[in-house]
Amino acid sequence: MDILYPGVKHFHMLTILLSVSLLTVRFFWSMTGSGMLQRKWVKITPHAVDTLLLLSGASLCFLIQQFPGSSPWLTEKLLSLVAYILLGVFAMKSQGKLLKALAFLGALGWLGMIAKVAMTKTPILMS
Q1: 0.70 cut: is pTM over it?
Q2: What is the pLDDT of residue 1?
């Protein structure tokens, strides 16, 4: 395995932590009606972090020479990521608090799925 792998993997894990933390804080602010959501850095930072997350994930794919479509576990991880993103967006944009909360919890559920698939390198739904 490439000498870059450990550093890229740790950077990827850091961006995951930042992404989830930002989603959680923004969700809390949206539920409490905080004006913090209107701050420029709050609107820009999640996009920058998520871009770095996707780039580091793509880098890991190239380093281990496994790609979505040819590796079932990576395909499932990528599809789960799409579900996580869609529910995260829904949690932030919905008007009702119940829908926001359900979407947020759903996003966290998909995040758990992503973590399990990533750690075991075994698909759950596509097996």
Answers
A1: yes
A2: 65
For the segment 43-68, what is each residue's pLDDT rounded down to a tens digit?
A: 999 999 999 999 999 999 999 999 99
Containing domain of residue 102, as a range?
5-120
Q: How far apart are CA 63 and CA 8, in angstroms?
A: 9
- The pLDDT value given to residue 126: 84
Cα(110)–Cα(81) distance, rounded to whole angstroms? 7
| Overall number of domains in the chain | 1
Indicate the helix (H) or strand (E) that contains 116.
Answer: helix 97-120
Is there a domain that residue 27 lies in? yes
Q: Tell me whether residue 125 is in a domain.
A: no
Tokens 């020479």 — which residue? 65
Residue 89 CA to residue 42 CA, distance in Å, equals 14
Q: Is residue 56 in some structural domain?
A: yes
Query: Which stretches of the chain drop beneath a pLDDT of 70?
Result: 1
Q: Tell me the Cα Rg of the chain.
A: 16
Burial of residue 127 (CB within 10 Å: 0-12, 13-18, 19+) is exposed
